[in-house]
Design goal:
single chain; globular
């Protein structure tokens, strides 16, 4: 089956799923004015800790977007979703690439998620790599984009993203790894944090690996090319 046909199949499955499960989707509009106290992903980590007989003590310091360094905001956008301001929750090119890679590997190997989809997963879903979860994630992302501004979606994401064991949000990450507020992060520090987001339990900002070094260099290069070194939010 060609990748294009797989993409069409995904779209058809999404429409079917929407019709069957819309009534079970969360009310995302409440997030306009209220910050979530916890997230489904935090709940997942807590359950993991309990099974291992460990204590779960999440560290999170909610911080408005204007309290975060523009260096970090721009680094995260470049690293995780450089089309964030141009899509409505989905990046069709990334979905096609995800379908292609998954089909070639015969397994769920490449997520292709936008930042909005990642937020949907963090807030409401589990990390299970299944098509049903992916479909639910996609439709919640569409709802988030309909009800919230891009600025609010970005603020929510930067406050709930996991940045290491028990570390949630940019402020907690900045204090944990660099001993400073997130508003004070340099470009290099911001890039180091942003580049750990795909695997925050595998990598940390001071990790030395060929893959991570290449990723940091790539993000720095793309930030310079985009003029993000001096741009304001």
């Amino acid at each position: 089956m060609k990748v294009r046909h797989l993409g069409l199949a995904f779209a058809a499955a999404l429409l079917t799923y929407v019709g069957a499960s819309a009534w079970r989707l969360p009310d995302v509009a409440v997030l306009r004015d209220h910050n979530p106290v916890s997230t489904a992903f935090m709940g997942f980590r807590e359950a993991q800790a309990l099974r291992q007989g460990a204590e779960f003590r999440p560290y999170q310091v909610w911080t408005p977007l204007e309290g975060l360094s523009p260096n970090l905001v721009h680094a995260v956008l470049i690293a995780e979703d450089d089309t964030f301001y141009r899509h409505n929750g989905f990046d069709l090119d990334q979905i096609r690439e995800a379908v292609r890679v998954d089909w070639e590997k015969r397994r769920y190997a490449y997520g292709g998620s936008t930042l909005t989809q990642q937020l949907a997963r963090n807030l409401y879903l589990s990390p299970d790599k299944t098509m049903s979860r992916k479909l639910r994630e996609a439709f919640i992302a569409w709802k988030l984009e309909r009800h919230l501004s891009k600025r609010r979606i970005l603020e929510l994401y930067l406050n709930v993203a996991e940045w290491g064991p028990g570390v949630y949000g940019a402020q907690a990450a900045a204090r944990t790894y660099f001993g400073k507020d997130a508003s004070e992060l340099t470009v290099d520090e911001a890039v180091a944090l942003a580049c750990t987001l795909p695997s925050p339990r595998r990598f940390h900002p001071f990790a030395v690996s060929e893959k991570l070094v290449r990723r940091r260099e790539n993000v720095l290069h793309r930030m310079r090319e985009a003029g993000y070194m001096v741009a304001k939010i």
